[in-house]
């Protein structure tokens, strides 16, 4: 089987999951335009990395698009200035809480216990700084409480304490779930791309384990055991990240992470909770 045939066989499996997340959220014409723009941009990057000049003709050849379409995409992209959007603003808030001296305890150097409301060094100010005015303080606090990231101390003045440096999103918000799912998928593909362009010594772990012979009656028991296994590993991963994480945010730092998941050729409605 050629490499091209192998890719064509696997792509529908990947695209079907992506479409299942997106259908009803974004229209196909909008998605097609987005993909077209990304395809041209990545083709440009590939040509430049190979030392070639990314002319319209070269871009058309490598993408299979008409030169007029390539020109249109390039002109449109030059007009647009992309604004980075955090896919997980809660983690941005936690990062500021941990690293900004304005929100740290002067004695311990760790994140301070903050009054929930008010001006100055408060949780309300932290939310404004990290997320903005579009999301209420209560909404952010409720999400962090559900994820076990913070706890509220009920004194004369209610205060909030950070108990975990990592936000665990637990939400029925389909848009947020879709966003997080796509983000995690992109991270898996980042590992694949890194390994394609790295020698064996510098490749990162990118493996899976599975069986084709699981009795459906045993699925719930299997899932329960996997959950325990992954929860223990996640705690170990948290500790490892904390060990290497620098205390202050500064230019030149890298973003790194570890992922855990369990998969199967099933739908949730077939197996129950």
Secondary-structure class:
mainly alpha
Largest sheet composition:
3 strands, antiparallel
State the separation between the terminal residues, measured CA to CA.
40 Å
Q: Mind telling me the C-alpha Rg?
A: 23 Å
Walk me through the structure.
The model is unreliable at 81-87 (pLDDT under 50). With 273 residues, the protein is mostly helical. The longest helix has 26 residues, at 219-244. It has helices at 3-22, 28-49, 56-63, 67-79, 89-99, 123-130, 137-146, 174-196, 219-244, 268-271; strands at 114-115, 150-153, 159-162. It folds into 3 domains: 3-79; 89-162, Arc Repressor Mutant, subunit A; 174-271, no CATH class. The radius of gyration is 23 Å and the shape is globular. The chain has a 3-stranded antiparallel beta sheet, with helices on one face.
Question: Helices, strands, pairings?
Answer:
Elements: H1 3-22, H2 28-49, H3 56-63, H4 67-79, H5 89-99, E1 114-115, H6 123-130, H7 137-146, E2 150-153, E3 159-162, H8 174-196, H9 219-244, H10 268-271
Antiparallel strand pairs: 1-3, 2-3
Name the features.
mainly alpha; Arc Repressor Mutant, subunit A; 3 domains; three-stranded antiparallel β-sheet; 10 helices; 3 strands; 53% helix
Structure in a nutshell:
With 273 residues, this protein is mostly helical. It has helices at 3-22, 28-49, 56-63, 67-79, 89-99, 123-130, 137-146, 174-196, 219-244, 268-271; strands spanning 114-115, 150-153, 159-162.
């Amino acid at each position: 089987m050629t490499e091209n045939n192998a890719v064509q066989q696997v792509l529908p499996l990947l695209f079907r999951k992506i479409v299942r997340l997106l259908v009803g959220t974004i229209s196909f014409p909008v998605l097609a335009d987005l993909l077209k723009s990304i395809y041209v941009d990545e083709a440009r990057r590939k040509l430049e990395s190979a030392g070639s000049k990314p002319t319209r003709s070269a871009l058309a050849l490598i993408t299979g698009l008409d030169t007029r379409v390539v020109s249109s995409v390039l002109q449109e992209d030059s007009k647009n200035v992309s604004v980075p959007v955090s896919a997980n603003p809660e983690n941005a808030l936690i990062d500021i809480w941990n690293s900004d001296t304005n929100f740290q305890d002067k004695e311990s150097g760790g994140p301070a216990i903050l009054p929930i409301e008010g001006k100055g060094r408060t949780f309300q100010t932290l939310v404004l700084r990290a997320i903005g005015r579009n999301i209420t303080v209560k909404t952010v606090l409720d999400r962090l409480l559900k994820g076990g990231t913070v706890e509220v101390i009920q004194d004369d003045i209610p205060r909030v304490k950070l108990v975990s440096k990592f936000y665990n999103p637990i939400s029925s918000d389909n848009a947020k779930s879709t966003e997080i799912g796509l983000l995690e998928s992109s991270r898996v593909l980042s590992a694949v791309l890194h390994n394609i362009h790295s020698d064996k010594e510098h490749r990162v772990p990118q493996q899976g384990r599975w069986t084709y012979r699981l009795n459906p009656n045993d699925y719930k028991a299997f899932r329960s055991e996997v959950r325990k296994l992954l929860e223990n590993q996640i705690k170990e991963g948290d500790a490892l990240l904390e060990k290497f994480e620098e205390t202050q945010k500064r230019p030149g730092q890298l973003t790194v992470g570890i992922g855990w998941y369990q998969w199967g050729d099933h739908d949730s409605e077939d197996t129950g909770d």
